[in-house]
Design a protein that fits this description.
327 residues; SKP1/BTB/POZ_sf; BTB/POZ_dom; BTB domain-containing protein; elongated
């Protein structure tokens, strides 16, 4: 391959360099040599690309980049995403359906390029992985244990920084039209009071997005207050337990300390009951949990519109349509 001293070093991705293949792809500074027939069978975009006559290599003309006599096809994608996308195609064990373990950045890369290059089975598989993380039903959202998700769930976060990873997810979801993934992705970002600091240079937000997120964060704080108004209704009218009175007093102190110190604004979180389990009488606990859940459901119903998105019913309908089209 002809090159000049000013060009960056080009590397071959060994596991995706098949000597008997004739299609050579380049993404950024990475080269992949793959079988065109297999790629064409999976992707209608590559099938059309390969069917189009390729330019004839011309020695020393500088017009076409060549390797081993084959013209190099340039892809305007990130090398890391092309690598995981091609691995998913050429290694059947690399990107298995849920709940097989998979790294989060792999899911995002495969989803984006499977959509771009029309590999429907991989696109649907990637969406299935994300469906387990970004729910459209409140009961499923409550069942998700984010503490366990960081270390034990089948989707592994590469950096361990969920806020940054979720920012990558919403960018990809916007690109592929998977809008139903966005409400919970957005929510898990803005519930962190310092999300702009956490994102830093890792994710660019437009001024409009930044304004939208900050406005949503204020609404999260108001919703947090609303979901804990049940504290004012305790003890229940038929309660005469001194233990309930002590627990309720402690609860008010905890909420006060939270407002002073806590960095999270999480109206959909269950943490408030961590200090009341087993300490309230049945009547007080039933009243508290019922009012808390009812206020959470009200907030959940408004969550998409908080970010300028369609309603949950519309998003669920969109999800069904996309899933059916890719099935």
């Amino acid at each position: 391959m002809s090159s000049s001293a000013s060009q960056p070093e080009i590397k071959r991705v060994e596991d995706l360099w098949f000597p008997d293949a004739t299609l050579i792809l380049r993404a950024e500074n990475s080269l992949f040599r793959v079988h065109s027939g297999i790629l064409a069978a999976r992707s209608s975009v590559f099938r059309d690309m390969i069917a189009f006559p390729q330019p004839t290599p011309t020695k020393d003309s500088g017009e076409n980049e060549t390797v081993d006599g084959h013209v190099v096809v340039r892809l305007h994608d990130l090398a890391g995403e092309v690598e995981v996308f091609l691995r998913a195609i050429f290694d059947s064990s690399f990107f298995m359906p849920p709940r097989s373990p998979v790294e989060f950045h792999v899911v995002i890369g495969v989803m984006r390029l499977a959509h771009k290059y029309d590999v429907q089975y991989l696109f649907q598989r990637a969406l299935s992985h994300l469906d387990s993380m970004f729910q459209v039903q409140f009961a499923d959202f409550l069942a998700m244990d984010w503490g366990a998700a960081k270390d034990k769930d089948h989707v592994v976060f590469q950096s361990g920084d969920i806020t940054v990873d979720f920012s990558k997810a919403f960018r990809a979801a916007l690109e592929v039209g998977a809008l139903w993934l966005l409400p919970t992705a957005y929510y898990n970002i803005v519930r962190e009071s310092d999300f702009l600091v956490q994102l830093g240079a890792n994710c660019y937000l437009s001024p409009q997005e930044e304004k939208l997120f900050l406005a949503a964060q204020i609404k999260c704080l108001r919703a947090f207050v609303s979901t804990h108004r049940f504290m004012k209704l305790l003890p229940s009218p038929d309660c005469d337990s001194l233990q309930c009175t002590d627990t309720i007093t402690e609860g008010h102190d905890v909420l006060k300390r939270w407002s002073d110190d806590c960095a999270d604004m999480d109206p959909l979180g269950p943490w408030v009951f961590g200090f009341v389990d087993g300490t309230l009488c049945d009547g007080c606990e039933e009243l508290a949990r019922g009012k808390h859940r009812a206020a959470q459901e009200v907030f959940w119903d408004t969550l998409p519109t908080l970010f300028g998105l369609p309603t949950w019913d519309e998003l669920r309908e969109l999800r069904c349509k996309v899933i059916e089209e890719t099935a």
